[in-house]
């Protein structure tokens, strides 16, 4: 059975996915709202996030997100975050980078330059490879439809700036809705999409 590439992104209503986790996560472009996700957390969303990781057996990350994860998760394998910390620490980590980064977190390796071939190899090797955050890299996968599922957690907030999941100039594409959750107590909705080819047009009259 061929494995899957799953992209997990936290998004605002206006499509911003930049720096949900903290003020210093990604300040590029003068982004002022790092950590916007934190005030909108609730138990239901937390359970959904954890449930979505049950089949994860590898991580695929962009360089910036890898550095953030490597600095944090190996040191948070106990306490409330211990389960996800132990999971991330234990599974293989694959890093997409044009440079030659130092990958000290155990189980980490650099992808080769042929992205499509590398993803095919990961599908043969793993059940479910998750791309978490890594918005710049995720947009490459979305533009080239090199993914099997996009999981969006959409939060009831509008920022008006920041890196968007689908920015102006994104490659036109159609997505098929696989599932949608009921809203959480604070209004977060989980939407799951599969790639569905190129968009078509028509006439409503």
Automatic annotation (TrEMBL):
Entry superkingdom: Bacteria
Domain spans labelled Bacterial bifunctional deaminase-reductase C-terminal: 5-180
SUPFAM superfamilies found in the cross-reference section: Dihydrofolate reductase-like
UniProt protein name: Dihydrofolate reductase family protein
